[in-house]
């Protein structure tokens, strides 16, 4: 008999109204599948927080967690809560405890502008430039297009 349980979820409801200058609030949820079934109830405490070291930083200190398009909030910006999640396990519905962290995810606008907006503007101006070239000058029209 084989069973498989998803123990974490990453959810980010995106709001694109201010794109490319948007910031999202994302959630990372870690389940303790058997914590509410009586086997390991103490694994999820009543409160969840990121443990800070003596210098005030998180246990795994990583500076500037980002890629060319996104910046992930620092550990000081993360907030943790304990939630109850309903899941089907062994063909029965169970309410399981989970640790959920909320953190900001900010878009770095330069990446979107350089990859989408700037090329679109360049294509527009190059095609507009083609209107000023004599239609009989085929090599000149081909050189810009």
From TrEMBL:
It comes from the Eukaryota. The chain crosses the membrane at residues 113-133. The keyword Hydrolase does not apply. One of its GO terms (molecular function) is transmembrane signaling receptor activity. Keywords: Membrane, Transmembrane, Transmembrane helix. One of its GO terms (cellular component) is membrane. Gene3D superfamilies: Neurotransmitter-gated ion-channel ligand-binding domain (2.70.170.10), Neurotransmitter-gated ion-channel transmembrane domain (1.20.58.390). This is Neurotransmitter-gated ion-channel ligand-binding domain-containing protein. It comes from Alexandrium andersonii. The lineage of its organism: Eukaryota, Sar, Alveolata, Dinophyceae, Gonyaulacales.
């Amino acid at each position: 008999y084989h069973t498989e349980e998803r123990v974490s979820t990453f959810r980010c409801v995106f709001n694109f109204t201010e794109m490319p200058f948007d910031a999202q609030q994302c959630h990372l949820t870690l389940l303790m599948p058997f914590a509410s079934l009586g086997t390991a109830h103490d694994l999820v405490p009543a409160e969840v927080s990121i443990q800070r070291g003596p210098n005030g930083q998180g246990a795994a200190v990583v500076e500037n967690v980002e890629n060319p398009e996104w910046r992930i909030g620092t550990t000081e910006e993360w907030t943790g809560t304990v939630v109850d999640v309903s899941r089907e396990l062994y063909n029965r519905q169970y309410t399981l405890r989970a640790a959920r962290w909320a953190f900001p995810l900010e878009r770095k606008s330069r990446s979107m502008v350089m990859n989408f907006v700037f090329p679109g503007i360049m294509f527009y101006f190059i095609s507009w430039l083609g209107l000023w070239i004599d239609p009989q000058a085929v090599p000149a029209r081909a050189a810009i297009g």
